[in-house]
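>> received
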Amino acid sequence: MPFSTRDEAMTSSPNKYNGYAHSFAGMSVQFILFMGIDAGIAILLARRMGLWNRLLAAPITLSTILLARALSCAIIAFGILGFIFAVAILAFKVQIAGSVIGFIGVGLCFALVTASFGLLIAAFGQTPEAARGLAVFATLIMVMLGGAWVPSFLFPQWLQTLTLAVPTRWAVDGFDAMTWRGLGLDAALPAMAVQLGFTLLFGGLALWKFRRDARLA
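>> returned
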């Protein structure tokens, strides 16, 4: 024999790649973003049925209405995320080997990104049908580039650098860091900061468009 073999027991470790942990992180990001799309489409449907104009006629500001929509979407998104990872922990032995506070922080920031993404769809969408198609396409591109389907460390180096401009990359990497990578809170802070930046960007663009449309109406 040109080589020798031996039997060796393999044990799982939170500091080694865990396919379950990464899959739950990636699929959570993908399907929670789909929920954000539905939240944005709901506003477009309310516009079509005239319900949005009734809300605007109420003695509250446009910013208050949008903030309420965003917070309700973020709360639902975080609740879904918590349920998904509860199943991952109980049924698939996924561990939050890193900082629990960091994991919660990444989850909250991603929930805010989802909410602002929904507002962005509602602000720039023309019809519910057209907006849904474009938003689903954009979401699938983001989750693919974000490493939700294939871990980003398997990407070519140029693509790893390019995808740092995608919010889903920071969400997936943040969840990976807090689960199977077993990293501390300091590893979660960049992911949280970048996601909050995208939240402000999406939310700011949506608010500008809503206010512009309200002035032109």
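>> The chain is about 75% helix and 0% strand.
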